[in-house]
Amino acid sequence: MGHGHDHGHAGAGVAHRGRLVLVLAMSVAVLLVQAVVAMLTGSLALLADAGHMLSDVIGIVLALAAITVAQLGGRPGSRRTFGYQRTEVLAAGANGLVLLGVAAWVVWSAVRRLGDAPHIDAAPVLVAGAVGLTVNVIGLFLLRAGAEESLNVRGAYLELMGDALGSVAVLVSAGVVWATGWHAADPVASLLIAVFIVPRAASLLREVGEVLMESTPRDLDLDELRRHLLAMDGVADVHDLHVWTITSGMPVMSAHIVVEASITGLDESQAVLDRMRACLAEHFDVEHSTFQIESPGHTEPVGHLHH
């Protein structure tokens, strides 16, 4: 049995903790401003945007909590051999559910207002929307790099992106109300904000589901990986091949490797393992791999390729 292990991974989000904290502070400030202005003006669109911002805040808090738990409790033990690495994924799933709840509430409230839209004071709504958009754009810039590496940071990034679109909808609706007096523009804009929320929540939940179902990572071609292993000197066959994800940036692989008949000694088998681990790390970014070495007699069963 050969192993290439790296259990110390605390999640790719750790490197971006400082930026998440900064975005959290800005988001809380905007949330308070939007909530107060929405209550004073009666703007459902702005209240919906504030509700969306609340989901941003909850998501970032969950992300920071997950990163901290994964880092502090990341050491493996007899009960949790990967520590608490999956905490990040569970937090991202909770975040997606919060987003769907916010969207459902916004739709329900907007439909009720469409027939009898209340009058709103457009000027304060325009100011609050502009502040929200500015902060969202800054947050997107801060989290752009981390969104490529961490599922939780990506969730926060997608929320900010949708919230930025929501702020644009608030600005447009308030501008319409101010220019034309058509107050129904406010609930219409809130429906648009709900439309922005749902696809992102569904995408995040789909990614979480793929990790929990231990699907092959989207950016990894399992057939290509198998071809690379078969091309290694000393490898006769590869079967029972599995690749899944523990948490963001931590793919894991296991496989049964049938060596050629010429591989007879322990040192030769170890050399084969070293070449395979180097190949996986270089070409597929898989640092954690487990191989079971088998003799040529094991080539009789039909080989399996698990997706």
Structural write-up:
The chain is α+β, with helices and mostly antiparallel strands. It folds into 2 domains: 2-212, Up-down Bundle (Alpha-lytic protease prodomain-like), CATH 1.20.1510.10; 222-299, Cation efflux protein, cytoplasmic domain (Alpha-Beta Plaits), CATH 3.30.70. The protein has 8 helices and 4 strands, in the order βαααααααββαβ. The protein has helices at 17-41, 44-72, 87-114, 122-143, 151-180, 185-212, 222-230, 266-284, and strands at residues 2-4, 235-247, 250-259, 288-294. A 4-stranded mixed beta sheet has the order 1-4-3-2. Helix 8 (266-284) links the parallel strand 3 and strand 4. The protein is elongated and about 85 Å long.
